[in-house]
Design goal:
- The chain has a single domain, classed as Ferrous iron transport protein A (FeoA) (SH3 type barrels).
- Helices cover about 25% and strands about 25% of the residues.
- The protein is built from three helices and five strands; from the N terminus they run E-H-E-E-E-H-E-H.
- The protein has a five-stranded antiparallel sheet with strand order 4-3-2-1-5.
């Protein structure tokens, strides 16, 4: 599941996305036939600076009309585009704890 699929208001945990992961390869089909984007190294670094790191707990607060979202990271709020939402792998927080 990606952050784009996360339910609004439900805590999720960011999963590691190792380089070369089949789920994150450019051009790989995802549901509805769309390719899953991969952030550039610079964008991945910036996302990590903002708190989008493996193990971080966050939640989607609301969706925007442009298909982006406002995401809560602790006390911070970050607006992100749909491309970024699709590039961040997550699991529901209760599932991550149960399987961790």
């Amino acid at each position: 599941m990606t952050l784009d699929d996360a339910p609004v208001g439900q805590p999720v945990v960011v999963l590691p996305s190792p380089a070369g992961s089949a789920a994150l390869e450019p051009g790989r089909p995802r549901r509805r036939g769309r390719a899953r984007p991969v952030p550039s190294p610079a964008m991945a670094r910036r996302l990590a600076e903002l708190g989008f790191r493996a193990g971080a707990t966050l939640s989607v607060l609301n969706r925007t009309s442009g298909h982006g979202a406002v995401v809560a990271l602790g006390d911070d709020r970050v607006a992100v585009s749909r491309d970024i939402l699709r590039a961040v792998p997550v699991a529901l927080a209760h599932e991550a704890v149960a399987h961790g």
